[in-house]
Amino acid sequence: MSGGAGVGTAAGAGAGAGADVQDGKVDVAIIGAGIAGAAVAYWLTRLDPSLSVTLVERDTGFAQASSQRSASSIRQQFSSPANIRMSQFGLAFLREAADRLEVEGDRPELGLRTPGYLYLATPPQADALRAQNVVQRAHDAPIELLAPEALATRFPWLETDDLALGALGAGAEGWFDGPALHAAMLRRARAQGARLVRGEVAGFDFDGTGDARRVSALRLADGRRIACGHAVIAAGAWSRPVAAHAGIALPVHARRRTVFVFSCPEPLNDCPLVIDPTGFWFRPEGRAFIGGTTPEPDEDDLPLEPNLEEFDETLWAAFAHRVPAFEALRIERAWAGYYEMNLWDHNALLGAHPSVANLQFATGFSGHGMQQAPAAGLGVAECILHGGWRTLDLSDLSVARLAEGRRVLEANVIG
Ligand SMILES: Cc1cc2nc3c(=O)[nH]c(=O)nc-3n(C[C@H](O)[C@H](O)[C@H](O)COP(=O)(O)OP(=O)(O)OC[C@H]3O[C@@H](n4cnc5c(N)ncnc54)[C@H](O)[C@@H]3O)c2cc1C
Predict the structure, then answer these.
(1) For the chain, which domains are there?
(2) β 273-275/330-342 pair status
(3) Residue ranges lining ligand 1, Cβ < 6 Å
(4) Protein residue with its CA nearest to atom 52 in ligand 1
(5) Given Cys at both, which of 55, 95, 258, 333 links 306, Cβ 3.0 to 4.6 Å?
(6) Whole-angstrom Cα distance, residue 86 to residue 279?
């Protein structure tokens, strides 16, 4: 099971968790050891093994972490070049993960499958899908456009009467075992020297004032203090309260998403991850399927329990319309997790903050964080090491855009 199966498991916890904070100053202290924090730690310790890197995580069992509750899918069907680049990098990383993340002969199995995403459009939506396809192809994303007849031939189980177009990224998009990636990234980062400390960050100490302020230490809720050269906020859906400790207003909100696991008596051959024109999605998961939609209303901080009514009220009829065989589907179980939703523009917030030069961000992924973490981690690590973007130009996604009033225009947000 690639999504949610690891809920509550101790990905990477164990030895070292709960250790006392070391004396002296660490080069980099990372707040949160989900996939984002783990990826920053992995790249930092890989690029410069002499660095001292400490991850501070309040729950080393990761019971609520989004990285253990993800649908763990990866696509190139974005409309903005930065997002396409990040996911292409993520796909290449996943393909090499067994080598990159191997520890003492243990090579992680991430179960990557690439049947593609299938975006479906009604007649009024078709031009937008075509326009995005031009951008995607210009950035080497191999996305094929399919007319309704071609869709019906390729996917005979799909209702196509109300469709004008589909866009499919077979071979370049799909899904993987996200909790396993998280565990393997954290394990490898620790094998490369990163330390994992159990504790809740409850404040910062600063040197200097105004825009010359620099973080000098993290303050933990139990009174401990970690002096650091750089700090990274990678606290997922909880990044806003952490940033508030530094006097920074971050538009990242915890928005609950329910994932339904269901079975269908009829097999759907070659089923990709389908994005319906109405907004819901589903994909195969082993012999079953998983799927979900954007809740309406979409409120902050709802308890992390699946909303089963969502299925009866909106999803079931929509599923059965798009795939008549789903008339006979059976709900097996469901889980819920938080999107760390960036309400400014629904895209990642990365890099150094303009008002605190040594405070970095790796958050706000808004539902893309599992696939974007390998690229985001490298980008943030290089910002710390070199003072700017290097391998990947992620400047479009810089957290500085909040102060600049700039938005990333990404049309393909899966709410
Ligand atoms: C239902 C669902 C489906 C998804 N589907 C996909 C998908 O298909 N593809 C995709 O790419 N992404 C998907 N995502 C998004 C992806 O899972 C997230 O973007 C990603 O896991 C975020 O990782 P993170 O490390 O930022 O956050 P988390 O994994 O939540 O980690 C943050 C960590 O910070 C810790 N923390 C918080 N505050 C503090 C503090 N004060 N002190 C110390 N520690 C703290 C928390 O305990 C937590 O462990 C999905 C998410 C959900 C919920």
Answers:
(1) 112-174+254-341 (3.30.9.10)
(2) unpaired
(3) 31-37, 56-59, 62, 65-67, 69-73, 200-201, 234-238, 242, 257, 259, 337-340, 363, 365, 367-371
(4) 70
(5) 258
(6) 23
